[in-house]
Amino acid sequence: DTGVSQDPRHKITKRGQNVTFRCDPISEHNRLYWYRQTLGQGPEFLTYFQNEAQLEKSRLLSDRFSAERPKGSFSTLEIQRTEQGDSAMYLCASRSPIQGAQPLNTEAFFGQGTRLTVV
Amino acid sequence: GNSVTQMEGPVTLSEEAFLTINCTYTATGYPSLFWYVQYPGEGLQLLLKATKADDKGSNKGFEATYRKETTSFHLEKGSVQVSDSAVYFCALASGGYQKVTFGIGTKLQVIP
């Protein structure tokens, strides 16, 4: 399967601990997004990478959150000093590069997400 | 900013009933519109999309028409099946980075 892969699928952590999630996008997709989905809500945008550059961050991304994409391939999302309010599903999505006159609105492919529970 | 409003569920229908899930949006520029589906225990999957006004997206018997005049993108299916039970998200993408803004999601339960 060459879809978007996220690891781990589930993470339970104690409040105050640090956690790191990994996303492997579809090969050759240079655009990568992180979203957060809480119970009963739609996913909310967190941050966007084009290649290795982090081009946009949501206000939802507090100082405790940091995302990287060092080589423009996989990405990591780290949460420091976790709080119970961080409990959510963290979703990663990727998109193919913009090429010439190709419309910008190519499909975003989502991974299955990492479910974080902070106890 | 951009926003998507969709009817809250849950929606419970009998098999072969007609489905409508309403969705309206607010956006700057000319967004693309999507319906995503999330089956139990699975990730988000694109169900259908429309990229400009009056476009109709369709897939698996589902349809939605991009209505710019009413800023709507209602999802319809003529005859639902038990296997259609899932959560449906209306969404839009706009701007240079094409980040997606989602609605709250509508849970559909189809009973035999």
Structure write-up:
The complex is a heterodimer of chains A (119) and B (112). Chain A is mostly beta strands and 119 residues long. Chain A is built from no helices and eleven strands. In chain A, strands 2, 4, 5, 6, 9, 10 and 11 form a seven-stranded mixed sheet that branches. A four-stranded antiparallel sheet of chain A has the order 1-3-8-7, with no helix packed on it. The termini of chain A are far apart. Chain B has 112 residues and is an all-beta fold. Chain B has no helices and twelve strands. In chain B, the strands form three sheets. In chain B, strands 2, 5, 6, 10, 11 and 12 form a six-stranded mixed sheet that branches. In chain B, strands 3-9-8-7 form a four-stranded antiparallel sheet, with no helix packed on it. In chain B, strands 1-4 form a two-stranded antiparallel sheet. Chain B is globular. At the A-B interface, strand 4, strand 5, strand 9 and strand 10 of A face strand 6, strand 10 and strand 11 of B.
* Shape type of chain A: globular
Report the biggest beta sheet of chain A as strand number plus sense, adding barrel if it closes. Answer: 7 strands, mixed
Q: What's the order of the H and E elements of chain A?
A: EEEEEEEEEEE
Oligomer: heterodimer
User: What is the strand tally of chain B?
Assistant: 12
Q: Which chain pair has the greatest contact?
A: A-B, 28 and 23 residues
**SSE-based structural type of chain A:** mainly beta
How many helices of chain B? The count is 0
Number of strands of chain A: 11
Can you write the helix and strand succession of chain B as a string?
A: EEEEEEEEEEEE
The value of Rg of chain B in angstroms is: 13 Å
**Relative strand content of chain A:** over 45%
- Structure class of chain B: mainly beta
Largest sheet of chain B: 6 strands, mixed
> Count of helical segments of chain A?
0
Helix-residue proportion of chain A: under 10%
The rounded distance between the terminal residues' Cα atoms of chain B is 41 Å
Q: Portion of residues in helices of chain B?
A: under 10%
Beta-strand content bin of chain B: over 45%
pLDDT under 50 segments of chain B (min length 5)? none
Query: Rg of chain A to the nearest angstrom?
Result: 14 Å
